[in-house]
Structure formats: structure tokens, C-alpha cells
Write a structure and sequence with these properties.
Layout: E1 3-8, H1 15-28, E2 33-39, E3 42-43, E4 47-48, H2 53-62, E5 67-71, H3 73-76, H4 80-94, E6 99-104, H5 109-119, H6 124-132, H7 138-150, H8 160-174, E7 180-185, E8 195-196, E9 199-200, H9 202-210, H10 221-233, H11 244-252, H12 256-260, H13 269-279, H14 283-290, H15 297-309, E10 323-328, H16 330-342, E11 347-348, H17 359-376, H18 389-392, E12 396-397
Parallel strand pairs: 1-2, 1-6, 2-5, 6-7, 10-11, 10-12
Antiparallel strand pairs: 3-4, 5-10, 8-9
Helix pairs in contact: 2-10, 4-8, 5-8, 6-7, 11-15, 13-14
């Protein structure tokens, strides 16, 4: 059985994601298994997920995924490099995946592999340091350093999904994996665009749903039904702004040294965060105060979210200590039987079973549980925000009840 892995950054399973799953079925046949590694309740752009993770996993299985694994919080909220390394690490550890598929603006797998090899070459670090010394952003410095090695081909580093594709290829190389990368054409709207025909970007969907506007044309029927059910129950849409006072309160209790533990680049960014946290009366005001041409807005949001949740860069070293199942269908059940024989990490189905695993696994699960309790406090209806759900909710089976 052919088994294809997919790593999902946000994944509300709108029409664009449905197209990707359908395309994989067309290429590899109806009996192919699709394994999704999906972000949990917080996402890589430094935000709260619009819908809680088990609902999105439910939609994934209803949309054609066979098995959904959770990308744990430290990697889900990392930069493109950390996000990719975490997701690829889980697919490799599962022991059943032979292909990694992903959306790409260029849809040129060989180009993305060549770019990844250039970024891993011996000469690249020195070229990158020279560019960073000019005071430009990391993205601009990497682009310029890559262009010195690749020429015009480095232009793929201008596109967000191509960047992720390059990072996936890098991670496969670094892990010595035999999984084969496959770039699929990214259809529809641009990454942060509005809409294009029957497709809308995840950013546009978030804007519409959080503003109470209709997004029916861009959601699969199952996703629309699940979303409306969550909205009626008072659990959607989830907004970072709902937790704004809590976030600002947390930041104002932190010392400058506390902020330093979350400054992944060790460039002194924590000084700016500390100073801004003393005066800012909103999250956006804080980010506006901290921003500069050197730092991308998404990086600032990720650092802010990490400070709030207590996720330090040290927590995402290496690979996650378990493979946590969020949802499965019958094919997924068969894959789980294979994974129990072939996976290099323990497979976690019942959350409470983590107590039988390593101390590292227990610490990660405790972090997930605490962060899920904070996520629940951002539900529109406070009455729905009881804590402890991380320990009570098991995986979705066949897209059925949670």
C-alpha cells in the first residue's frame, strides 16, 4: 500500500486542501493511505487555530485522510525550519510513509531539492553571515546567500510554500530519510491573498469567519457543518484577541531575563519585547512597537505566543518523543498496526497512556494540556472553557463522534 505523508500548517480543510487530497488519490489510487501531521491548537504563524484540533482532525478524515497525527506545540509554533523538521521527523518515525507531498508555487520538486542542498552546503553559512551583517532580515539574507550559489533558481525562496518545501527537503536530507518529496501545484489564492475562483487562502478564511462573514463557498460541506456546530456551541471562532488581557498580563509579569529565554536568534530582540510589554495596551500595539525591518511579523507573533505559553527554543531540539493520534479511518487503523511494529517512537492513542512513557514525553503532554486549557479560555462562550479536555478527548474514529 502506497503511503503519502502531508504536513499541515493550519489546515481548516477548505476547498484547496480538498483538491490536494483528491489529486493524491488521482495519482496514487483510491487505496493509497494519506497520513497527515497537523498542527494542534496553535499554528505556525503565531496564532490560535480557528477551530480546536480534534474538529479539524475530524474534517481531515472526512475529507480523505487516513490517519492524523499531531505536530506537538513546540514544533507547530516554530519557524519554517523548525516546523518542517518536526513534521518530517514524525513521518520518518512512523516507519510507514514512503512519499512526502506538499503544495508549492513552483511545483518543481527537483528545484526545491537543489535549493535545499545549496542551503546545506559548506559555503552557505559564511555567505549567510555576511548578508546578515548588513542588517537585513533573515529571509532577505538567506535569499541573497542562496542566489550567490544558485543564481536565478534562488527565486523559489520568495514564495512561502516553496520555502516550506525547501525546508521539508532539507529535513529529509538531514535525517537521512528514504521518503521521497513530491511538490504539487498550489491551486487558488496566494498565501495571504483574498480568493481566486473556488479557492480562498487560509488567511482569507480566518478573516471572513472571525468577522462573521460567509465562507460557505470555500469550505467543504463537512468542514462547514463542523464549523457551524462549533460556532453554535460557543467554541468558534477562536481569536487570539479574546485572550489579549491574559497575554498582556503574562508578559508584564516577566523580567527582561525571562524574555531572553525565548529569543531564538540571540539578537537582543528580547530587550525590545521587555520594553514594549511595560507600556503596550494591546497585542498589536506591542508588536508595532517591537517591529523593525529586520524581523518578520510572523516571527514576532511566534515569540509573543511562545512567551505566553512557556515554549522555549530548547523544547524543540530533536524530534518529539511520541506519535500522537488525533483521528483515523479504517485504513488508518491498519496503518497503526504496522506502526506498532515499525515506528521508532511510541504511538500515543489514549492521552492518559503518556504516564507509561518517558519523563520527556510526560513533560510535553503536560505542556500540551496546559496550553489547551489556555486555548479554551479564548472560546467565545466562557461557559465552554472548562479545563482538562486534553486528558479526556481521544482520537476521532472514522470521522465519527469525539
Amino acid at each position: 500500500m502506497r503511503t503519502i505523508g502531508i504536513i499541515c500548517e493550519y489546515n481548516p480543510f477548505h476547498t484547496g486542501h480538498a483538491w490536494q487530497l483528491g489529486e493524491l488519490r488521482r495519482r496514487f489510487g483510491a487505496d493509497a493511505a494519506l497520513v497527515c501531521v497537523m498542527s494542534g491548537n496553535y499554528v505556525q504563524r503565531g496564532d490560535f487555530a480557528l477551530l480546536r484540533k480534534h474538529v479539524r482532525a475530524d474534517a481531515a478524515v472526512r475529507g480523505g485522510a487516513s490517519l492524523v497525527l499531531e505536530l506537538p506545540l513546540p514544533w507547530a509554533t516554530a519557524s519554517a525550519e523548525g516546523f518542517s523538521r518536526g513534521g518530517v521527523g514524525l513521518l520518518c518515525a512512523a516507519g510507514v510513509v514512503d512519499t512526502l507531498a506538499f503544495g508549492s508555487e513552483c511545483a518543481d520538486t527537483e528545484l526545491l531539492v537543489r535549493t535545499a542542498d545549496a542551503l546545506l552546503s559548506e559555503g552557505f553559512p559564511d555567505a549567510l553571515r555576511r548578508e546578515l551583517a548588513r542588517g537585513v532580515s533573515f529571509a532577505a539574507a538567506r535569499r541573497a546567500a542562496a542566489e550567490a550559489l544558485l543564481g536565478a533558481e534562488a527565486a523559489c525562496l520568495d514564495s512561502p510554500n516553496d520555502i516550506l518545501g525547501v525546508e521539508y527537503c532539507k529535513a529529509l536530507r538531514l535525517l537521512g530519510s528514504g521518503i521521497v518529496p513530491l511538490a504539487l501545484p498550489r491551486v487558488g489564492a496566494a498565501h495571504d491573498g483574498e480568493s481566486a475562483g473556488d479557492f480562498a487562502s487560509a488567511s482569507e478564511l480566518r478573516r471572513r469567519l472571525r468577522a462573521g462573514e460567509s465562507a460557505e463557498a470555500y469550505l467543504t460541506p463537512d468542514m462547514l457543518r463542523l464549523y457551524e456546530s462549533e460556532r453554535a456551541a460557543g467554541r468558534a471562532p477562536v481569536r487570539l484577541e479574546t485572550a489579549e488581557r491574559a497575554i498582556l498580563s503574562r508578559l508584564r509579569t516577566m523580567t527582561e531575563e525571562d524574555f531572553a529565554a525565548f529569543d531564538e536568534g540571540n539578537e537582543g530582540l528580547y530587550h525590545r519585547f521587555f520594553d514594549a510589554s511595560r507600556t503596550a495596551a494591546s497585542v498589536e500595539a506591542l508588536l508595532d512597537t517591537v517591529k523593525s525591518k529586520r524581523y518578520a511579523h510572523a516571527r514576532l507573533r511566534r515569540m509573543l505566543l511562545s512567551c505566553y505559553l512557556g515554549v522555549t527554543p530548547a523544547m524543540r531540539v530533536g524530534t518529539a518523543p511520541y506519535l500522537r493520534v488525533l483521528a483515523m479511518d479504517d485504513t488508518g487503523k491498519r496503518l497503526l498496526h504496522e506502526m506498532r511494529e515499525r515506528a521508532s517512537l511510541p504511538v500515543l492513542i489514549k492521552p492518559a497512556d503518556v504516564r507509561e512513557l518517558s519523563a520527556e514525553a510526560q513533560r510535553l503532554m503536560a505542556l500540551e494540556a496546559r496550553s489547551t486549557d489556555l486555548y479554551a479560555l479564548a472560546y467565545p462562550e466562557l461557559s465552554q472553557s472548562a479545563g482538562g479536555s486534553e486528558w479526556r478527548i481521544g482520537p476521532v474514529i472514522k470521522g465519527g463522534e469525539r
